[in-house]
Amino acid sequence: MEVYTTETEQVNAIKRFFATNGKYLAVGLFLGIGALVGWNYWQNHQTNRLHETAAEFDKLNQSLITDPAANIASVENFANQTNNIYGVMAEFELAKNAIEKNDLAQAEKSLLIASGKVKDENIQALANLRLSRVQLAEDKTDAALKTLEQVKGKSWQVIVEDIRGDALAKKGDLAGARAAYSKGLGYDGSPRVKDLIQMKLNDLSN
Question: Which range is least confidently modeled, 22-36, 115-129, 138-152, 171-185?
Fold first, then answer.
């Protein structure tokens, strides 16, 4: 790098630099401002779209409660076209509706879609826990156990071991079921859930 010994030389060097590169700097500045404006516009658009989706989901959810048969297709269409958290919640509602009709295959399908669509770890855990319960109700014990392996986070482990114990007991693995229930009791969790696990463990012991 050249070293300029006088203020005049430094000023003249700066002038020469801008004379040579000024148009490129102007274009760069323009592009930088344009990118910033574009980013802010995109962020605002995404926020507004999320609010619109939330309002649409709320409306559809209420319609599903009021008249499920007449509005189920609209909720399905919304779930298929929406990839954010409200699309996941729509799949949850579709699964709930299917369970109420004893259509466990459809409930499993909706929960599988929800699990694959969701990004948040806790909501994904919730989707997989519900999915494992449905699979267990369908006598798909191995599938339920595999689904449980996908549940992450220590706060969910009481429920995981509760369902695991149920699945192993259903398979006839009573020792495994006892181990799962006992492990579940070692985690922090809802007193109600832990009381239920203790009852199951007592039943196995008897």
Answer: 22-36
